[in-house]
Amino acid sequence: xxxxxxxxxxxxxxxxxTVERGYTGQTLYVNVGHGEVKSKPVTEQMKELFxxxxxxxxxxxxxxxxxxxxWDDPENxxxxxxxxxxxxxxxxxxxxxIAASISPLTDVVIDSNAGGHFGPFLKFAGxxxxxxxxxxxxxxxxxxxxxxxxxxxxxxxxxxxxxxxxTDTHLLGQWITERFTETEKDRELTSFVSAGRGSxxxxxxxxxxxxxxxxxxxxxxxxxxxxxxGTVLRHKHVKALIVRSPAFDSKSNRPADPARIQxxxxxxxxxxxxxxxxxNRMRSRGTSYLVEIMNDYDLLPVMNFRYGQHDETPKISxxxxxxxxxxxxxxxxxxxxxxxxxxxxxxxxxRTGPYAGSCVIVDGPExxxxxxxxxxxxxxxxxxxxxxxxxCDTYGIDTISFGTGMAFVMECYEAGVLDxxxxxxxxxxxxxxxxxxxxxxxxxxxEGFGLIFGQGIRKMKAAFVxxxxxxxxxxxxxxxxxxxxxxxxxxxxESLAQQGGYGLTNKGxxxxxxxxxxxxxxxxxxxTFEDKAEALHYFPMxxxxxxxxxxxxxxxxxxxxxxxxxxxxxAKIPHHVANYVEIFSGVTGREVTADDLIRMSERVYNLQRVxxxxxxxxxxxxxxxxxxxxxxxxxxxxxxxQARYDKQLQEWLHLDPDSMSVxxxxxxxxxxxxxxxxxxxxxxxxxxxxxSNGVPTPETLADLGIAMPEVLAVIEPHL
Length: 719
Known about the structure:
By secondary structure, this protein is α+β, with helices and mostly antiparallel strands. The chain folds into three domains: 3-244, Aldehyde Ferredoxin Oxidoreductase,  A, domain 1; 258-486, Orthogonal Bundle (Aldehyde Ferredoxin Oxidoreductase Protein, subunit A, domain 2), CATH 1.10.569.10; 496-718, Aldehyde Ferredoxin Oxidoreductase Protein, subunit A, domain 3 (Orthogonal Bundle). 42% of the residues lie in helices and 13% in strands. The strands form four sheets. Strands 1-9-8-13-10-11-12 form a seven-stranded mixed beta sheet.
């Protein structure tokens, strides 16, 4: 069946506009339930206040949702945008897409970013963002065809999908390629977003963003993993969002000052070429280089975040993955990225499940996957990690939520909360990769223990209490989720700032807002509450900015000229910050300073906080975290670091540990550490201009220029 033979439910034609200074001037609205397709203007106010990317996502979603909107309501949207700098080819890491929706896991707004080609292609096809609303009665595809080029006639179609269309992403990709492309050039200019069968039966579904790999002559996928946006996509009965871009080049963003971008980009490319080979070797190892570093500093999550290192870590370290990766250097997920960290394993032979015996490409694994489904579950077998990675991707399951959720279940099994009778015969002990894989397959089939597991840790805790009589306090302590979102893969027990970096986020514990462990724990650069609060203001705002403009954060801090050590504030990597000022100004023609970039993020960040409050969350009690992220829950944890913890009791509390039982020591630590976290919350809220209950004040909102009546109306009852 050719594409043009698919039944068309709705169709709109349009002229592809010329991108001007990073913007097309319009966004695309598609309601798959009503069959409505229309354009919306991008106003100067939108660009000034919300910039693009995550900012556009939130602003459009704000107007689509109501205080009563929940994730599975038709009016909930998936919004995707790349930002004004998305699609730049002269500076590394300029191909990000940012997706947002109301999350099935957290019931508040989630944003998640991915590499791949979709975001830039969407822009070159004429759209600064796409909103997908409604729920289709039958399976559909949204197809944006801008192959006619600038000012040519393009079309947006909602197409009915036949029953034989696969759902799992690696097969769906083949199906799309056969029906929507004919030539190699077609494939290079086509990208799509999909989920998978696992997203249909769980709340932790991810979005897969495709890219066509010229060297492999095959499709690869990058994931917007967090918060269950893939679940929302499948609930709407959308198989895929497909965009066919016109031909593009380095000038397709029509920047205000191309020479400025070229000059800044060339300098950064030289820096990457010189220093990456002697620093983290991202070009050959990707983010897997972090495994041994985290292990060395007692920061690698092991067995549900109980421990920070393990003797078997070398089995899953960067050396192993560098040998496994099929090197096709440079191996980036967007054109012009010399960091090129997006590696893959070719011809991996699947050993379990419905695709056993097939040879597939496994994209990654990235550090978060290695640590999450690997060390955190006590699995130190690279083959098992690859198997889980492949199935999570094709089923559309977030590897972070899967890994952290499985680690929680494995500890519950070890503690006797679960047994074979309760798991349907599965021995979910630490290290049992086959049992973990069977849960993953059950999630895809929508059966067995996989259905319980797929609801995420927060709902599993409630189910284990109700159905099995588990101790809710113990589950709250060891269930590594906050706001309903599973933790990403870093130990935080000895970094109060990183505890805040997870707990005081708007969306839940995700490291892309504030990764402060080394500043705080290793280098002791944040000794006071005020120091920590300043870091928990600046770094979340700075990292938020990448998602506004369309950048990957890795070129900012994973490849650094050693001269940075001589800077006044080396943790901020000021010469790279200056690069982003140059690129943003060069693209948009809007002359900005480094402080201006932070203010852009403050507007968006505060709007997202107010959005959460409008949805019934977003206050102080919503910023609580499980105790395991603060300190030791069990005697075994305490004893694994007894010398450290005993010394802390002496120095912090002037207690004599020799006269105390282990349980008494744990209790003393807990009182102190929980009090420290509460004091941190007070300091951070004050620095951010929020009340003691976590509400942005009217003065803060007015200073940021977002004190609109509908925004003030949300916070007024909480002041």
